[in-house]
Amino acid sequence: MAESSSLSHSKWRHALGVLALASSAAVLLSACSGNTPDSSAPSDTTPGSAVDEELRGTLPQSIIDAGMITITASFDNPPVIYASEADASKPAGVAYDLSVALTGLFGVEPDWQNTQWPGQLPGLDAGTFDVAWGQATVTAEREESLYDMIPFYLAPLSVLVPEGNPNGITSFASMCGVTVGGSVGAIQEYYVGLANDAFCDDGNKIKYVSYSTSEEVALASGAIDAIIDTYPVNVGAAKAMGGVEAVKLSDADKFDSGLAGIVFTKTNPALANAFATGLQKLWDEGVYQQILNDNGVPDAILERDQLVVNYLTGTPAGEIKG
After folding, report:
1. What is the pTM of this model?
2. Which pLDDT belongs to residue 74?
3. Chain centre to alpha carbon of residue 293
4. In this structure, are residues 302 and 152 in contact, taking their beta carbons and an 8 Å threshold?
5. What angle do CA 71, 263, 240 make, to 5 degrees?
6. What share of the chain is helix, strand, coil (3-state, %, to 5)?
């Protein structure tokens, strides 16, 4: 199951260092500003709540006995989850801050494991991890037949383009004939294929180029015309890099829900339901909203009724349809 692996905090810095050596005509990036997420703040500044004993009682007994919830993510997806500047072995970002607040309600600790995307879902299926949180897009197919998912973050698709948007990219339909870069194995490559079928004639297709690193350098050099990723990530990249801008794709909802989700196995419905109830409690207390605001992504805040298990399809936790 392919998934997005967004521009990393470290990749922004790497790109800036490389491009400093390029000619001024090719350089689209400027020195990294103070707009990147501040991951040096201590975790005790994260807002949270006292233990909710009733909510704690809904957790699986194995979680209560362990005293922790093991969460997997790749620490390269700012502002959702990325390596802390203070300690690269530890995470920072929206998902981390929410996990601290949630596990505070549960009376357990979050145990984050830095895992590349290809290992996350197999590890979840094997029971190595309890939750996958940071890279997954919510889809109806996944909700109905593969995993239980809770949306936590609005992340519509966008492109990162040179300032002024010289190719006039505003939608998938307007991307025919351009070359876009994205991460290896990203779900966006699948969406580009759908867009080619829907909008583009033979000989004028969108070309998707996969990168594990350095798509920013490719954009700066003109090797690609745009980078496709979620809007909050591209906005953060634009602020950090300079000379580029993030543009939402107006027709992205034809292919993508625009929702980033927390993933649970279908065999662990109690944990999924506890997370949903906990997130709604954080929303009621204003903690959820504060965390996203503090991370600089107020536009990613969801409504309370979206913070439920399998929001798109209404499939009860633990059930498989079809």
Report:
1. 0.79
2. 92
3. 16
4. yes
5. 70
6. 40, 20, 40
In 3D space, the residue among 272, 230, 266, 309 whose CA is nearest the CA of residue 121 turns out to be 266
The domain defined by 43-154+261-306 carries CATH number 3.40.190.10 = yes
DSSP string, 232-257: HHHHHHHHHH-SEEEEE-TTGGGT--
Tens-digit pLDDT profile for residues 17-37 = 333 323 222 222 222 233 344
Say whether domain 156-254 belongs to CATH 1.10.10.10. Answer: no
- The number of C-alpha atoms within 13 Å of 247 and in the hemisphere containing its C-beta is 24
**What is the b/e burial string over 45-62, where b = at least 16 CB atoms within 10 angstroms of the residue's CB?**
ebbbeeebeebbeebeee
Indicate whether 124 pLDDT > 50.
yes
Q: Is the dihedral of CA 6, 9, 10, 13 positive or negative?
A: positive
Identify the CA nearest to 230 among candidates 292, 158, 175.
Answer: 158
> Do the Cβ atoms of 241 and 196 come closer than 8 Å?
no
- Span 92-120, pLDDT tens digits: 999 999 999 999 999 999 999 999 888 99
